[in-house]
């Protein structure tokens, strides 16, 4: 294979485990989409399989390389990455893949960029060992970044690298992708939501770190005309459904699972809540809800979420479960407050989190990495 040629628009290979449905994956897909539309060659290497957003990236014109790894340390399949990475000027990693990172460091041609997407949380011994391997590889990377200050702080702690070395580039949102594909009445009927009442919703991968159980418990404490809509799937779904049963509110909580068009369901929500803790790095779902003008509630220990919400201005911040229920109650009872917060949130997000700004931010980092390689030469 030929080596990459220097250009004013560097060729970029985005590297991550897969591009299945999820907030981080959606952010990477939108970045790739914007880079392609700007005339850049932006392709994707997935360690596992393409996934929903991978197929969309392919349709946009990205070349998609699939290694087919079943596990992170699948050496035989991972070794194929070396010849692929050498064909690009930039290899941009969006996940902690120690084997692929080590291979990338050894290929010696592409400049290496890493973006940390995650917050602070306790890790198992196995994860800590994996992080040590990643830390060793990161010494060979040209530029380090994070998608929030919280993620930069987390990366610094995990990898024992000074926080100042992580450039912060916020995720960009392609707002056109949030437009509903179907009319609200049809989506409401499909989801089995009552025609009246208030809908408090969330969109999330149903993991423990998202703390969706707090939203289910809050629903039980709210008036009976409040319905909870949960968009997303994950290992905690069965537990959350059982909790709704145990609280006697199963008919007031609707789980619709993974959905391709999140805008279809956002249009049904009067209030949005994401109760995540400090292990939340960015919270794409929150930013998307804010972008369409939905008043939102987060927790004071919500990690990167606090970088989007200014309490009382662009949303509300709860300090504990009872305060969470009180804040939700405020929004349910006060439609004027909902409109005011939603309007301010929409204005902030559509100014601060454009996909164009994200692409420009990473273009500057790519230039830094290439400048560093020229200086070294």
* E-strand count: 13
Instruction: Give the overall shape.
Output: globular
Helix fraction, binned, reads 40-55%
Number of distinct helices: 15
CATH topology of the largest domain: Rossmann fold
If classified by CATH, what would the architecture of the largest domain be?
Answer: 3-Layer(aba) Sandwich
CATH superfamily of the largest domain: Glycogen Phosphorylase B
* H-E string: EHEHEHHEHEHEHEHEHEHEHEHEEHHH
Mean pLDDT: 93
Describe the model.
This protein is α/β, with parallel strands linked by helices and 377 residues long. It folds into two domains: 184 residues, Glycogen Phosphorylase B (Rossmann fold), CATH 3.40.50; 178 residues, 3-Layer(aba) Sandwich (Rossmann fold). The protein is 43% helix and 16% strand. The chain contains 15 helices and 13 strands. The strands form two sheets. The protein has a seven-stranded parallel β-sheet with strand order 3-2-1-4-5-6-7, sandwiched between helices. It has a six-stranded parallel β-sheet with strand order 10-9-8-11-12-13, with helices on both faces. Helix 2 links the parallel strand 2 and strand 3. The two termini are 23 Å apart.
SSE blueprint:
Elements: E1 12-16, H1 23-37, E2 42-46, H2 51-60, E3 64-66, H3 75-78, H4 81-85, E4 90-93, H5 98-107, E5 111-116, H6 125-138, E6 143-146, H7 149-159, E7 166-168, H8 184-191, E8 198-203, H9 212-221, E9 226-231, H10 237-246, E10 253-257, H11 262-266, E11 271-274, H12 284-291, E12 295-299, E13 316-318, H13 321-333, H14 335-352, H15 355-376
Parallel strand pairs: 1-2, 1-4, 2-3, 4-5, 5-6, 6-7, 8-9, 8-11, 9-10, 11-12, 12-13
